[in-house]
Amino acid sequence: MGPLQWGDVPTAVGALFAGGAAWFAFQTIKSQRQQIGEQRQFIGEQLRFMAEQQQNLELERGELRAAAEDRRTAQAKRVRMVGRKAGASTDGQGASTPNDHWVVTVTNDSDAPLREVEVWFGSAYSSAEVYEWNALWNPARTRGGDRLMQLVDLIGAGRVVCFESQHYSPAAVHNNPPVVFFTDDNGARWSLTARGSLNSTAQQPGSSPPSE
Fold it and tell me: Residue 94 in 3-state DSSP?
């Protein structure tokens, strides 16, 4: 080993410091990259958590809306309307007379009263006769109970009311099926067809049905 060349000392020291600085810079960059990676992972986990929370909130809101809709329609869904065509007969000579009117029974199977109940046939014909009814009565032998107004103020829980249309041609009977309109215990107005189609309605009590 030769004698130390003092002229090389600054170069060696500079190289040493440069190497140290480079190592520290590398370690700093490595640490920063690790921190950035951890931050990205944390942010990703938070985003997934927030997405799951949002999904849970949407499900809860959907369940609350469904429960609210069930409560809103609970009473209306327990109203039954049965319509049948009537009036057909055959005489002793075999000549037949076709059906010429509707007979409709409206049953309140709910635990609360119905108000402002009426039956319309098509959009132009209101009921000709309205009377109390008992499900045990034979319609062929009984004409019903007390007569009521076309717009029935109240049908109590478990009660039945019968509505009859005017007498008209078989074609008019066929083209004007019955629809019952009623107000539930919460003040909502509903329409119900003989096929079971239940809808909220803008129809005003005592007025002809709005055109759909």
Answer: coil
